[in-house]
Amino acid sequence: AEAEPVVLTASAKGMFSDVVVTVTLDAEGVITDIAVDCSGETVLAKPCAGNAFLSQFIGKKGPFAEVDAVSGATNTSNAVLEAINSLFAE
Asked: Which of 17, 26, 5 minimizes the C-alpha distance to 83?
C-alpha cells in the first residue's frame, strides 16, 4: 500500500513572533508542500510565505544547511529554516 503523506508542523522564533511552518512529506521524506504563517512578522517578511522562497525546499529532504533569505527578513527566513530543520532532527 502507498504510504500516506505526513503533515508536520513546527515553529521557531522570528523577529516579532513565532513563525509557524507546516510541511508535507511524502513516503520518502521528501518535502512536497510547505505553508508558512509569518503574519506576526513585518510586511517585509511576507515573501517568506511565498512560493519563490519556499520552492528552495520543495522536492528535497532536510535538514538544510542554509537558505537564500528574503531581503529585509533574514530573521524570519532563518525561523522558517530552523522550523523545517527541527522536523528532520529526529
From this structure: 17
Q: How many CB atoms lie within 10 A of CB 31?
A: 21
CA–CA separation, 76 vs 18, rounded Å? 9
For the chain, the helix, strand and coil percentages under 3-state DSSP, each to the nearest 5: 30, 25, 45
Grid cell, residue 35, equals 505553508
**% pLDDT > 70, the chain:** 98
Query: For 89, which DSSP code?
Result: -
Buried b (16+ CB within 10 A) or exposed e, 35-64: ebbbeebeeebbbbbeeebbeebeeeebeb
Q: Which three cell numbers stand for residue 59?
A: 522536492
Residues 10-24, mean pLDDT to the nearest whole number:
98
User: How far is residue 37's CA from residue 19's CA, in Å, rounded to a whole number?
Assistant: 6
